Amino acid sequence: MYITFHKKLLYRFSFVAVILCIISILHIIFIKEIFNQSVPTYLPTPPPFSIHHVVRHDQAVSLSITYTGNKQFLPYLLQELKNSDMTLTIFLPFNYYHTTTINELNETLNENDGSLFEWGGWIDYKQETQVDQLPPEITLIRQRNATPEQLKQIATNGYTTIGAKLTLAEPHHLLTTDKSKELLSHIRSGDIIAINIENNIAAATELTLQVGQLLNDSGFNLIHVSQLLFEEDKLKIERIE
Asked: Membrane spanning segments where (predicted)?
């Protein structure tokens, strides 16, 4: 009688254990499916962008991305890059200077009818700090607490993280001899330069040419502001189209 009772108890326990295992498996599948639906980590197929050859400029690595798709798919591209192993700097339109988050960027771009790649400015504004010793026409932004030696090391290693942004804020004030000296005395290898177009494209274009010529004559190579910057050692792609 004891043996019979023991067997019945064992059968009941086994039956309950099997039912619990089935429920657990279904629960895991259900939760996984919900998670996959709630976190969009994919790009449209085929992806409406192309990544061109990685090029070195002044010991910094640049990667040029041309986006030809609908604006509504741009957040997927940004999110995919953000979720990757690559450290990047994204440049934003000047009139969206204070945009600091992906969500704000998405809302801004949805309201913007202009070109997505008329870009300057930057994302992650709070991670950068301003240097105040320059004249008011020039604003220099660099990494928080970065020393000249650290910036030199970043450039020597062949990549940049947040980098630096140099803005000549008044494009109608063309580059004078004094401003040229100020610029050359403060700029460092690995810095990023942006010209504020404002409403005077002609003057901004002239200023861009002057600054470019000055830096080229001084031995600097330039990175275009419409590019994204990546760590080369983590970037395993030579070309995607």
From this structure: 9-30
